[in-house]
Write a structure and sequence with these properties.
13% strand; two-stranded antiparallel sheet; single chain; Rossmann fold; 2 domains; 49% helix
């Protein structure tokens, strides 16, 4: 098994030694990355969420705490609101919780650190093993849909961790939300380990184990509350805010363009309403629609987003007069483009919910994308027509 090399990292809390990624591990070195399945006997400082190491028949593994530190809480916040999420990962491999023995349970996790953290916290008071799969810093639910939390990766990690030498039993507990990506029969055939699909929430793990690996209806039911949806909205809004300046630049350029050149006054006077409607469409599709998801008519995410977008644009235009009511061309462009923009933004939220499946998403995209392209094209043509009329060319 490969020894771990520690490197010195500096962050806002000072300097600490953390494991670097082994070659070909598929990850990048980071203060939150951990060792794989072994470490050197002369270990240095471990990450703050680790309590030490222990020897197993397969080599040395890291022991992890079931309590969250202030850094873990801060990492959760950053992963919720920014692209830091894609760097928030632990190294794939085997970890120990408490003082596990050969008969202790093995729980499977994604290497997205928040998923890993929620699992280890749920194992408080238990002695267990955690086997982390390489999901490219994606949570269990999304990774299962993408295939990275899947049968092949699970089989590979079982083999690389030499799990058959670490435990005497042949059972592994996979999160229920990972079921879509794991074929239990194939895993058992290829490894000898039987897959148990555990509770949907880590807080039920202790009760689940004590009940003899049997789930109640509560353990199998996903409670995707308004708060759960709300905390996911920053990750929907964040990428849009990065693309918004390009939209703003295009709008200002279009409205400012004159036969004599580009006039800032014209750009701002004509473009400001559309810039504000752009913000309205983002809020409608990436915030209001997810938060009010169950209360909006229709099953389709695209239609839900369009309804909220249309109501939001109507409200902004009629109440605040963002577009002159006598300007038919501009009104038509606004009513065509911004609601379908909200629809597109809402459709992106499908990957964060348990309200739909992969087949439903593909079906909506197959229908929605052509509609989005057509509506956006018509809106652009209307704006070009508006400019031609302004220049008295038509």
């Amino acid at each position: 098994m490969q020894a771990i090399k520690f490197v010195t990292r500096k962050d806002g809390k000072g300097t600490q030694s953390v494991p670097s990624c082994p070659p070909d591990s598929g990850c990048t070195s980071s203060p939150v990355l951990t060792q794989s399945t072994s470490c050197t006997s002369e270990e240095k400082d471990l990450p703050l969420w680790a309590t030490g190491t222990m020897m197993t028949p397969a080599g040395m593994v890291m022991k992890v705490s079931t309590d969250w530190s202030r850094g873990d809480h801060w990492g959760m916040i950053k992963s919720r609101i920014s692209a830091y999420r894609m760097k928030y990962a632990v190294m794939p491999g085997l970890y120990a919780v408490g003082e596990p023995i050969k008969d202790s349970d093995v729980f499977i996790s994604a290497n997205y650190k928040l998923s890993f953290d929620v699992l280890r916290r749920g194992l408080k008071g238990l002695n267990a093993w955690i086997l982390v799969l390489d999901t490219k810093s994606i949570n269990v639910w999304c990774a299962a849909g993408k295939g990275t939390f899947g049968t092949d990766e699970l089989v590979r990690r079982i083999a690389e961790a030499h799990l058959d030498t670490v435990v005497s039993h042949r059972r592994i507990i996979v999160p229920q939300l990972g079921a879509v990506g794991v074929r239990a029969s194939a895993v058992r055939k290829r490894t000898g380990f039987r897959v148990y699909f555990g509770p949907v929430d880590a807080r039920y793990i202790r009760t689940y184990v004590q009940a003899g690996y049997k789930k109640t209806k509560e353990m199998s039911t996903i409670d995707f509350s308004m708060f759960d949806r709300l905390v996911l909205t920053p990750m929907e809004i964040n990428p849009l805010t990065k693309k918004y300046p390009w939209f703003a630049a295009g709008i200002l350029l279009l409205f400012g363009l004159q036969p004599s050149g580009i006039l800032f006054e014209k750009a701002w006077a004509g473009g400001a309403p559309f810039l504000l409607l752009g913000v309205v469409s983002i809020l409608a599709g990436a915030f209001i629609t997810p938060v009010l998801l169950p209360f909006i008519p229709c099953r389709s995410f695209a239609i839900k987003g369009w309804l909220v977008g249309m109501l939001s644009v109507l409200f902004a235009v009629q109440v605040f007069g963002l577009v002159e009511r006598h300007n038919t061309i501009m009104l038509a462009a606004a009513y065509l483009f911004f609601p379908i923009a909200s629809s597109y933004f809402a459709l992106q939220f499908t990957g964060s919910t348990t309200f739909t499946g992969m087949s439903g998403v593909k079906r909506e995209l197959k229908i929605g994308i052509p509609v989005y392209v057509i509506m956006a094209g018509i809106s652009l043509l209307l704006l070009v027509l508006y400019k031609f009329r302004e220049w008295r060319l038509v």
